[in-house]
Amino acid sequence: MQAFDYLPAVSVDEAVAALAAGGAGARALGGGTDLIAQIKEGRRSVARIVDLKRIPALAEIKFPPEGGAWIGAAVTCRTLNQHVEFKRRFPGMHDSTHLIGGVQIQGRATIGGNLCNASPAADGIPNLIAHRVRVHVAGPAGARVVPVEAFCVGPGRTVLATGELVVAFEFPASPVRFGAAYLRFTPRNEMDIAVAGAAAAVELDDAGQNFKSVRLALGAVGPTPLLVESAGPRLAGQPVNDASLELAGSLARAVAKPITDMRGTIEQRQHLAGVLTVRALRLALDRARGTRTVDALGRPL
Amino acid sequence: MKSVVEFTLNGEGRAVLCEPRQTLLEILREEIRLTGTKEGCSNGNCGACNVLLDGVLVNSCLILAVEVQGRSIVTVEGLARPDGTLHPLQQAFLDHAALQCGVCTPGFLLSAKALLDEKPNPTETEVRYWLAGNLCRCTGYDKIVRAVLDVARSSAPSTPTR
Predict the structure, then answer these.
(1) Is A44 part of the contact surface with chain B (CB cutoff 8 Å)?
(2) Average pLDDT, chain A
(3) Chain B closest-CA separation from residue A52 CA (Å)
(4) B88-95 vs B142-155: helix axis angle to the nearest 10?
């Protein structure tokens, strides 16, 4: 591996200063499951690594009294998988955190790293988008908040400026009758990269019959994870039935702008965007209603 | 620039002079000369280099040695008792012939130990999920799964559901 400096920061201010002083050659280290592999393979050159894992603020998990959650950027997938209260409040997020890599990757990989690596196929990001997560960023010019759907700007590229880092994710309070889910398609069951992925979050009316709000997001069908912007206004107030689910699928297909590569073709990925969206919606609906009409892959029982 | 990294390895304190670019795997094998931990893919896909870091299963090829300052590491060499008695998982792998060439075995043993430490009575589905990050080109996996389930059944109070 190439040589670099290693700076284990113990505070956000120290990390910001170290990243800013390092300029374009500095890179923040979370779990390292993407970064270290990229450096080894020569896909990324770094002069300085600033380790964020010893910063207490980045390891925090907090549940504000008004609801929601505050999750530090260096919290690992494994920690979230084991966190009873987080799983109780946001069961849909578990769909992502338990399928990013294998158990040994989850023990190290962080949600912040999954976002900042900015893979178009990242399994965590569509789910964060569906959950309306706000990204809290610290930098030389101060703190700012970025809606997660605006965070990635291209494959491997984010809105972070030199010296900036992600501190934490703010999950808004879930309404009552809320459910969310993430599904992806891969040729094998585990340890693979998504050919396409879809996340859905729904809020139902008091009777559980109509959509109050819908939020859909897609992965691996564009240069960044995508919010299906039309889904919210088109589906709010609509009854939950086959017609509205099919409408959701068609809205997702229309937003998907995939490429053909070794993992799949444009046609396959567009088709998958629709199928996975409908299935993720069915799973999210089950969770919102407390029913069980579909299996873990969103297929009707 | 080299720095001294202090950590606990299989219960013993260690201090090793490390460059930032050296992985934990390199330090274990080339500086400390504990070669039980294997290098397979070196990019986090195969699990041959698995160790426990503060009890958490990790790929040692994707961790810089400088990151483990003050932490505790367990490698396959830390599984057997000091008198040489094998860990029940090691014995079960022998009894079930759950290895052929053996290169993947230390990684599988650490994954299995991490699983049984967390879930002493796993289902077969859980065993397969926990071992999904370990690649074996010899056994076809089934004997490995049987060995892990056998240890779970003989030490757990009740039988797994499936």
Answers:
(1) no
(2) 97
(3) 10
(4) 130
